[in-house]
Write a structure and sequence with these properties.
This protein has 397 residues and is an alpha/beta fold. It folds into 2 domains: 250 residues, Type I PLP-dependent aspartate aminotransferase-like (Major domain) (Aspartate Aminotransferase, domain 2), CATH 3.40.640.10; 107 residues, Alpha-Beta Complex (Aspartate Aminotransferase, domain 1). It contains 15 helices and 15 strands. The chain has a 7-stranded mixed beta sheet, with helices on both faces. α4 runs parallel beside α11. The longest helix has 22 residues. The structure holds pyridoxal-5'-phosphate.
């Protein structure tokens, strides 16, 4: 059994705050600051450039990738870290499209994160006029999978509503018609059990600064199925994905397997932060995490629905159709969230009307969640969200 009191003690949470935004930016695990400081002082400071070899900086993208892989059901040597998620989406899509040269359509859904759709659009534009992104409603995806589709590109858990796709089923359907699949696991990795190998996905990508707590701007990951890894042709053919970067050949030759999905110089300090942050997962069973997450979500939904009738549940009611977040709608969602944050309960707002709450069992208890719901309902009952200062929009919501 996973000991959630133990995992909670591994985080440095701000005093007096109930943090329901780990789905957007994970909080600071205790071991991270010292590890990063040590690498800065002892490795960068003392070894300077020799650190690439002596401290193993160059191997961090695949070494840390293997640790992330364990949390998403990826075998060793199939995941590599680097860049941001938007870049990894582009990379996976470009390689997938190239493997289906007689098809022109990327199928996605209207619940996808806009950056994924923008990247797909930009890629289509540079490939030619026949390429296009087709988006349908999330529940119409299955019916829209047909032999014209080159790539099915979906985010497993909807960033606004928390609705979860049936990954294995959609992969099977796509493969039946000869399409490839790219899954975005931004709201899955570290949030719910994932089995990329078992579900037989072709590509998967995701970020590390949400549920994996690597800190702002932490690197993304990419997984390529071993059966494809030596065939994919990287569109972002950077020197560190080359077979022999330090041969400085004028011609590009892709590196072995997943190594070819590396692009440029790895963000060493952010990888070190992630490596230290991943220690909190030692001894965590993903099935326990899932059960606890659903327990916390259930407490929150019941309490909010019982005491704040003006908030409407935006997430699926059936627990098995949710990821690890719960959302409610209200036309004044922005101001309500600002008022809640002012009282130490941090969630976030997504336009036009979504109040978003992430449930992260590693550091949230049933007591926290009860208190968060009670604070929210008290703010609603008294109307104290409706002050002018709560209506002023900041740059990041
Ligand atoms: C958070 C998120 C992103 C963000 O991409 P970055 O390039 O890391 O800024 C992209 N896609 C999805 C689905 C996300 O949830």
């Amino acid at each position: 059994m996973t000991d959630f009191d133990h995992t909670r003690a591994l985080f440095d949470l701000p005093e007096g705050v109930i943090y329901l935004d780990g789905n957007s930016l994970g909080p600071l695990p205790k071991g991270v600051a010292a590890r990063v400081a040590q690498v800065v002082t002892d490795e960068w400071g003392k070894m300077v450039i020799t650190g690439w070899n002596r401290a193993g900086w160059m191997d961090l993208p695949s070494r840390v990738g293997d640790r992330v892989g364990r949390l998403i059901g990826a075998p060793r040597g199939t995941v590599v870290m680097g860049d941001t998620l938007s870049i990894k989406v582009y990379q996976a899509l470009a390689s997938a499209l190239e493997m289906r040269p007689d098809r022109r359509i990327i199928l996605s859904d209207t619940g996808n994160f806009p950056s994924d759709l923008y990247m797909a659009d930009g890629l289509c534009r540079s490939l030619g006029p026949d390429y296009r992104v087709k988006t349908v409603a999330p529940d119409a995806v299955e019916g829209a999978i047909d032999p014209s589709v080159a790539v099915l590109m979906l985010t497993e858990v909807d960033y606004r509503t928390g609705r979860k796709h049936d990954m294995a089923r959609l992969i099977a359907k796509a493969h039946e018609v000869g399409a490839l699949v790219v899954w975005d696991l931004a709201h899955s990795a570290g949030a719910i059990p994932v089995d990329v190998a078992g579900a037989d996905t072709d590509f998967a990508v995701g970020c590390s600064y949400k549920y994996l707590n690597s800190g702002p701007g932490g690197p993304a990951f990419i997984y390529v199925a071993p059966r494809l890894a030596d065939q994919v042709r990287p569109a972002l053919s950077g020197w560190l994905g080359h077979e022999a970067p330090f041969a400085f050949d004028l011609d590009y030759r892709p590196g072995a397997g997943i190594e070819r999905m590396r692009v440029g110089t790895p963000p060493v300090l952010q990888l070190v932060a992630l490596d230290a942050a991943l220690d909190v997962w030692d001894g965590v069973d993903m099935a326990d995490l899932r059960a606890r997450s659903l327990e916390l979500q259930g407490i929150f939904i019941n309490r909010v629905e019982a005491a704040c009738p003006t908030l409407t549940l935006a997430s699926p009611r059936a627990p098995e159709n949710r990821g690890s977040q719960v959302s409610f709608r209200h036309p004044d969602g922005y101001a309500i969230m600002q008022a809640l944050i002012a009282e130490g309960v941090i969630g976030d707002f997504r336009a036009p009307d979504i109040l978003r709450f992430g449930f992260t069992p590693l550091y949230l208890s049933p007591k926290d969640v009860t208190r968060a719901a009670d604070t929210l309902c008290d703010i609603m009952a008294t109307g104290r969200w409706d002050r002018p200062e709560f209506h002023t929009r900041a740059k990041v919501t």
